[in-house]
Design brief:
118 residues, mainly alpha, Arc Repressor Mutant, subunit A, 3-stranded antiparallel beta sheet, 3 strands
């Protein structure tokens, strides 16, 4: 295997983690500062509690989120972006801005393609 191929596998894995359907929403929501589980659950439409939990663990494992547990009853848990994730957030904002600006053109291109394909 070439050196380039060896490097591509880990890069692909990282990109898969941060570009997942739910990961982007979690990272964008957590960028506003410390956020609690229930706040994330409310702000990310369609995510189940189980899927939110799995994605939070994955993002924490990847070093993108910090989970802080406060010794209260019931325990208070907050999630914050790490410095690495804050840098990623800037790129996500650019990407989501691009998607917002071009979604109409993409929809038109898809409709034109589908019309030609029929």
């Amino acid at each position: 295997m070439s050196v380039l191929a060896d490097q591509a596998c880990p890069v692909s894995e990282v990109l898969d983690h941060v570009s997942g359907k739910w990961s982007i929403g979690i990272l964008v929501a957590a960028a506003q500062g410390p956020v609690r589980f229930t706040e994330l659950e409310k702000s990310i439409k369609g995510i189940s509690r189980r899927m939110l939990t799995l994605n939070l663990r994955k993002l924490e494992r990847d070093g993108l989120l910090t989970r802080t547990v406060y010794p209260t009853v019931p325990p208070k848990v907050e999630y914050t972006l790490t410095e690495m994730a804050q840098e990623l957030h800037e790129s996500l904002l650019m990407l989501t801005g691009w998607a917002t600006r071009h979604r109409g053109a993409i929809a038109a291109a898809q409709a034109e393609y589908d019309r030609r394909a029929d």
